[in-house]
């Protein structure tokens, strides 16, 4: 069984939002045939009511596809300080979802969303608190052995992988260690405005060298705020979670063609599995 997950992020409804790219995303969905859609934060640019309403209207176009959505740092007020300190997620809860740490089970996958915004402490780097790690553990406790466990958070657990300086969340390794113990296989995130597809063992040694966590960062899917090698670019990921391996297909928007197209493919064997080749090489 394979479950297909469309991973989009950093939509930034408001001044940076690019409508023509959003229409290309919508046009891609029928051929991608996702079983679920994940939005890893920053739905809006400045957490304004009209921007949340625009995001809600856009999500309604996804028909009946199950969704898991979490907030990003741009989804809490920045300059409206009183609102940020007293009721930072009021508009998000009212218009998008009352649940900041949602759980979605679809096919052979369970997804646990974690709100990393920490509006009263750190808007930039974010936080994952111990009670959220306990929530993740409790959500996964009854999950059958063979199901794929995926965590979704807006902020990044791994340091920047290029020359653009990005500091990971405080206590990131603590969270990674917990996820490894909970047999989480993949983390989906955003925030960096450029993509990265790799493994937590690239950054943290961990105490289980046989199993790191696949890290899948999405760039900005529908805004003009791409960074690094994805400056002025728009991207999303399609994850195929299978019984033996997981494949991440990275898509980029091409302005000349007016559509998204795949630009790379990454396949990871599941924990305890080896690659099963499509065909054996012919002897010479």
Description:
By secondary structure, this protein is of the alpha/beta class. The chain has a single domain, classed as Purple Acid Phosphatase, chain A, domain 2 (4-Layer Sandwich). It is 21% helix and 25% strand. The protein is built from six helices and twelve strands. Strand 6, helix 6 and strand 7 form a beta-alpha-beta unit. The radius of gyration is 18 Å and the shape is globular. The protein starts with a strand and ends in a 15-residue tail after the last strand. The C terminus is likely disordered.
Briefly summarize what is shown.
The protein has a single domain (3-269), classed as Metallo-dependent phosphatases (Purple Acid Phosphatase, chain A, domain 2).
Write a concise keyword list for the protein shown above.
disordered C terminus; single chain; Purple Acid Phosphatase, chain A, domain 2; 12 strands; 284 residues; alpha/beta; six-stranded mixed beta sheet
> In CATH's first tier, which class applies?
Alpha Beta
| Quaternary state of the chains | single chain
User: How many discrete domains?
Assistant: 1
Major β-sheet strand ordering: 3-2-1-10-11-12
DSSP strand tally: 12
Report the radius of gyration as a whole number of Å: 18 Å
**What is the typical, i.e. mean, pLDDT?**
91
**Uncertain runs with pLDDT below 50, 5 residues or more?**
279-284
Question: What percentage of amino acids are in beta strands?
Answer: 25-35%
CATH T-level topology: Purple Acid Phosphatase, chain A, domain 2
Separation of the first and last Cα atoms: 35 Å
What percentage of residues falls in helices of 4 or more residues? 10-25%
Give, in order, the helices and strands: EHEHEHHEEHEHEEEEEE
Outline type? globular
Structural class label: alpha/beta
The DSSP helix count reads: 6
The CATH superfamily is: Metallo-dependent phosphatases
> What is the makeup of the main sheet?
6 strands, mixed
* Second rung of CATH, namely the architecture: 4-Layer Sandwich
